[in-house]
Each structure stands twice: as C-alpha cells, then as structure tokens.
C-alpha cells in the first residue's frame, strides 16, 4: 500500500452526498444485518459446510473493503459547487462543455468528480484524458486529446455552468 498522500478528490455537493449515503447505508443498515446472520449461522454448528456463514463472512469482507474505500474518498474529497464558479468563461470543474471534432460532430460533456462519472449520461471524470485537455479552455479554443486510437482535436463550442 502506498504511503503517498492521495490527490484532492474534487466532487460536487450531490456527488459527496451520494458517497456519504452509500457509506451510511452500508455501515448503519447492511453491515449490522449481515453480522446478525453470521452470528446466527455460526450458532448452527459446523462452519465448514455452512453456506450462510461462509457467504456472510465473504460479504462482510466486501462491505468492510468498500467502507474503507468510501472513507478514504470522503476524507480526500474537496467539495466544489459548480454553480459558484467565478470564471464562467473557461472550462473548470462542473462545466458542461459542447465540443466539436474534426468531422464537425458535436458532443456535450460535463466535467464531474471521478466518483461521479457516467459516460452514458455525458458525465466524465475530472482526471479523464478529455477533461484534462479541456481544463482552462475558452470558447473557440482547439484542444488535442490523446486517446488510445490516436490524437483527436476538439474545438470548444460552448461552456455552461449551473445557476446558483
């Protein structure tokens, strides 16, 4: 395990609330129920062939790993409200950006925290290659994104932020 400090985990208020809700649900509801099932299964005798006990212990380890991961992500979180972005003329965290490629095909993406990504909904992580290339760009800027299929050039067509 690395001892280097984690870089800041930029996240929107809604994204942080989702992480916290998952953490609270696992710790406050799912884990205690599972501990009860494991205790009940352990009381049934032979644990080597007890499916409830074996599965329960395995699931408990998974929950504990997830709780540790969520705790680390929340500790490193830096909540940024995109609606309060002072420089709305450039692409920063939380921006919804319309870009056009060399073939004039447009695409709209929103730069969100890495824990909030949803490619199908156009929500790309702050550290994704395209997001890194777009950071600081203004309307009309050309940016090259280095993708596995090769470099692609995009023009920033529009930038929008949520209203405060």
Automatic annotation (TrEMBL):
<keyword id="KW-0238">DNA-binding</keyword>
<dbReference type="InterPro" id="IPR006358">
    <property type="entry name" value="Tscrpt_elong_fac_GreB"/>
</dbReference>
<dbReference type="InterPro" id="IPR036953">
    <property type="entry name" value="GreA/GreB_C_sf"/>
</dbReference>
<dbReference type="InterPro" id="IPR001437">
    <property type="entry name" value="Tscrpt_elong_fac_GreA/B_C"/>
</dbReference>
<comment type="similarity">
    <text>Belongs to the GreA/GreB family. GreB subfamily.</text>
</comment>
<dbReference type="InterPro" id="IPR023459">
    <property type="entry name" value="Tscrpt_elong_fac_GreA/B_fam"/>
</dbReference>
<feature type="domain" description="Transcription elongation factor GreA/GreB N-terminal">
    <location>
        <begin position="9"/>
        <end position="79"/>
    </location>
</feature>
<dbReference type="Pfam" id="PF03449">
    <property type="entry name" value="GreA_GreB_N"/>
</dbReference>
<dbReference type="GO" id="GO:0032784">
    <property type="term" value="P:regulation of DNA-templated transcription elongation"/>
</dbReference>
<keyword id="KW-0805">Transcription regulation</keyword>
<dbReference type="InterPro" id="IPR022691">
    <property type="entry name" value="Tscrpt_elong_fac_GreA/B_N"/>
</dbReference>
<keyword id="KW-0804">Transcription</keyword>
<dbReference type="GO" id="GO:0003677">
    <property type="term" value="F:DNA binding"/>
</dbReference>
<comment type="function">
    <text>Necessary for efficient RNA polymerase transcription elongation past template-encoded arresting sites. The arresting sites in DNA have the property of trapping a certain fraction of elongating RNA polymerases that pass through, resulting in locked ternary complexes. Cleavage of the nascent transcript by cleavage factors such as GreA or GreB allows the resumption of elongation from the new 3'terminus. GreB releases sequences of up to 9 nucleotides in length.</text>
</comment>
<dbReference type="GO" id="GO:0070063">
    <property type="term" value="F:RNA polymerase binding"/>
</dbReference>
<dbReference type="GO" id="GO:0006354">
    <property type="term" value="P:DNA-templated transcription elongation"/>
</dbReference>
<dbReference type="GO" id="GO:0003746">
    <property type="term" value="F:translation elongation factor activity"/>
</dbReference>
<keyword id="KW-0648">Protein biosynthesis</keyword>
<protein>
    <recommendedName>
        <fullName>Transcription elongation factor GreB</fullName>
    </recommendedName>
</protein>
<keyword id="KW-0251">Elongation factor</keyword>
<dbReference type="InterPro" id="IPR036805">
    <property type="entry name" value="Tscrpt_elong_fac_GreA/B_N_sf"/>
</dbReference>
<feature type="domain" description="Transcription elongation factor GreA/GreB C-terminal">
    <location>
        <begin position="88"/>
        <end position="161"/>
    </location>
</feature>
<dbReference type="Pfam" id="PF01272">
    <property type="entry name" value="GreA_GreB"/>
</dbReference>
<dbReference type="InterPro" id="IPR028624">
    <property type="entry name" value="Tscrpt_elong_fac_GreA/B"/>
</dbReference>
């Amino acid at each position: 395990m690395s001892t280097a400090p984690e870089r800041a985990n930029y996240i929107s208020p809604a994204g942080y609330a989702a992480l916290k809700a998952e953490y609270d649900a696992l710790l406050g509801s799912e884990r205690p129920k599972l501990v009860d099932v494991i205790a009940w299964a352990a009381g049934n005798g032979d644990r080597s062939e007890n499916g409830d006990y074996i599965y329960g212990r395995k699931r408990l380890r998974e929950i504990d790993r997830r709780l540790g991961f969520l705790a680390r992500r929340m500790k490193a979180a830096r909540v940024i409200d995109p609606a309060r972005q002072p420089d709305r003329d450039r692409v920063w965290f939380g921006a919804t950006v319309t870009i056009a490629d060399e073939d004039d095909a447009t695409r709209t993406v929103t730069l969100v925290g890495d824990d909030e990504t949803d490619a199908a909904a156009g929500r790309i992580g702050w550290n994704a290659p395209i997001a890194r290339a777009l950071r600081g760009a203004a309307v009309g800027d050309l940016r090259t994104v280095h993708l596995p299929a090769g470099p692609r050039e995009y023009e920033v067509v529009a930038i929008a932020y949520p209203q405060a």
